[in-house]
What we know:
- The complex is a heterodimer.
- Chain A is an alpha+beta fold.
- Chain A has two domains: 220 residues, 3-Layer(aba) Sandwich (Rossmann fold); 116 residues, CATH 2.40.50.100.
- Chain A has eight helices and 20 strands.
- Chain A is elongated, with a radius of gyration of 25 Å.
- The model of chain A has no long low-confidence stretch (mean pLDDT 89).
- Chain B is mainly α.
- Chain B folds into two domains: 44 residues, no CATH class; 176 residues, Orthogonal Bundle (MetI-like fold), CATH 1.10.3720.10.
- Chain B has 14 helices and no strands.
- In chain B, α4 crosses α13.
- The N terminus of chain B is likely disordered.
- Chains A and B meet through β6 and α2 of A and α9 and α10 of B.
Amino acid sequence: MSTPAESPTVRLDGVVKRFNQLTAVDHLNLQIAKGEFFSMLGPSGCGKTTTLRIIAGFEQPDEGGVFLEGQSVAHTPPYRRNVNTVFQSYALFEHLSVWDNVAFGPRRRKVPEAEIRKRVGEMLELVRLKPKATAMPRQLSGGQQQRVALARALVNLPAVLLLDEPLGALDLQLRKQMQIELKEIQRTVGITFIYVTHDQEEALTMSDRIAVMNEGILQQCGTPEEIYERPANAFVAGFIGISNLLPGQVEDHGVRLQTGQVVLAEVDAGIPAGTTVFVCVRPEKLRLGTHEAGQVSVEGTVVETVYLGTATQYMVELAPGLRLVAIENNVHTARTDGRLARGSKVTIGWLPEHGRVLRS
Amino acid sequence: MSQFPALHRAEVAVAERPGVGIAAPPAVVQGRRQRPPRPFDRPRFLSLFTALVYVYLFAPILVVVIFSFNSKRSTQVFGSFSLTWYRQLLNDSGMIASLTASIEIAFITMVVATALGTLLAFGLVRARSRANRPTDVLMLTNLVSPEIVTAIALLLVFTQLGLTLSLTTVILGHITFSIAYVTIIVRGRLVTFNTEVEEAALDLGATNVQAIRLVTLPLLWPAVIASALLVFVMSFDDFVTSYFTSGVEVAPLPVRIYSMIHFGVTPEINAVGTLMMVITISIVLLALAVYSRQQRARLAFLAE
Lengths: 360, 304
């Protein structure tokens, strides 16, 4: 028996879930600590929502174990799990007022009515909906409905709050605002959040840790910085932000690109020479037209420039079909005219440690 | 004039036109008038058309109500206000018996058919069974087959089974044709039902039974109540099935009224109709009042 401080709030052990022939979740192992803002990120159909539903108890895993606060919940129905969900559709009770929606959970758990009034009142205060307590859900805007759904789940003070793309239905501006609000609320209540999203920017800005999934398989799990700076494979590199993936073969101390040039890169000891790999470099790590000692450099032709205001994006062709995207911030030292016009030859450089070698 | 706002507005517009002509160049007025009508414009005489439809729907009922208070026997000429026919109705024990029987039939049919029809709707929408499609088709067949055929078939079945024709056989007959209506109405609501709402209830600590009682049913109530009312009304004024399946003891109201034609219709019928309408409308209003009062009472403390 481990103490609560040691045991993770949520632990998944080799969880497998199949729907007919399709494996939605494939041997998934996860440990999520108390108070963590944990995101599950991936394209639709990657198994992230299924994983959430398994934790909530709406789906039973075919294999593996689910543990909440150290206890197996294999035979615990959803209504006895100390977990609450914010649904993508909000799933508010249309026939009940805002107040009764939020009070629904505590009432089922036989909390005394005086205590319910206090807690529901506080929770509506937290999501700034106290004046709307008697309103019906359909009288509220999308953002307000979203906050009711959040309050309705949080009022039960669950060990874990599961959020299934909760901002998906909101417009961009409201979404940005709600991201900040959600993060603040999470910090205030200190409850573990498991947040499912397909929006990589959302995951990066809000999370303590991110699990990237694809086709039911966990691709990488780490802090936003780890995921972005050190993607574990080509899928993660391509899914999070923009990546330049240059195909090549592993040689001693480097990778031979399709152009025939060998570039210096750190190759993991596990990857033998001759293996087909990608060299992955983020666009903002590339330097245009400068050459410094110790940097890797390649030659190319500018084929497209896109002015983005704070930055300029260049598309550079190294060889037919082999292109790089470079982003250069428009700082005061940068060029102001169109010196890098389309068609101009340019040298592109990066530091060897910024080039990640990934198996294809 | 005021009960036909469309006509009224048209008249105002005509009266105002010279004024508009002075305030703005005539060309603007011309341009506005000649603008081709768009398909989704509000029709000019919308209110008039609406009023006419309602007149068409409710005028006969209004005639029944008015003539139920007629002192004369005539159904064309109104004499003076009187409660003669209500008095006669109360003293007509046969008519009262038929009215009671019809209400009883309609009520039991409503309860049983609504329960069964709702369950069938759940089965058709939620159960993943190979029997779904055939069941669905059978239900619809029942709906589209001529009532006279079903009625005769019921009569044959009841006689074959050796059942004595009675109010029970009438009720059984009514239930058979009512279930399909309930199923169709309730299913219409169920297919658009967001099942995440039920999961939300489970998630918040409700057991399966509580989830159905506190969330599924309340959201389904409008459809269930609508179908129940429909069944009540259909059963209450059903003639064909009632005629073939009722026995000798007491005739349901429509059957009795039909047999009265042999002796001539009296305005007592109007009194029966009016009474029924008053009862039905009162029940609906009462239900609404009780519901909204409950809602207010539960959240009274929020007003502080």
